[in-house]
Known about the structure:
The protein contains four helices and six strands; from the N terminus they run αββαβββαβα. It has helices spanning about 1-30, 60-75, 125-140, 165, and strands at about 35-40, 50-60, 85-90, 100-110, 115-125, 150-155. Strands 2-1-3 form a three-stranded antiparallel beta sheet. A three-stranded antiparallel beta sheet has the order 5-4-6, covered by helices on one side. Residues about 20-25 have low confidence and may be disordered.
Amino acid sequence: SGGKWHCFRFKLSYYNEYKSYLSKMKFKCAQLKEYQIVGKPLSKTNEKTPIYKMRIFAPDEVVAKSRFWYFLRQLKKVRKVNGEVLRLTEVSEKTPTRIKNFGIWVRYDSRSGSHNMYREYRDVTVTGAVTQCYRDMAARHRARAHSIQIMKVAEVKPADCRRALVQQMHNSTIKFPLPHRVLKYNKKSIFVAERPSTMQ
């Protein structure tokens, strides 16, 4: 009985760890948010220290702070234990109902080295375009989220777009087929002799 109880406890602990792993994976796949983080290194004396501001895309504030200190340690040799965060604000989109073209400059680390890349996406928000970029990089280049660095994100005018996938949407007479059009019967009979055709 003791061996069975030990085996049951082991299976239960494994099941709980698996549930927590699944919840973390669902949390990581959430929509990214844009944060503006301001921080500085701690001064040992009363001397003035420089203040750094970064634009970070992350799913939550905890990951945003972690990425901030990761980049600051690489660029300015400032560690988290020797610094402090002065301000962390979430940036919201000014016009979330208007479709826009976004150009994203990306650097990512692959198995062979570091690569620079420029990508274009269409979305109504900056965070939506960056989320598309992360999903696209994972699908096309097997790039993990921790190995992707968003260098710059800017709105691009239609005349300055370079990618054919985005340029094809700038046609003013663009049309989309409706292959499965469901008919709504208002005054007609519900029971008919022939099946309705939804292909038009």
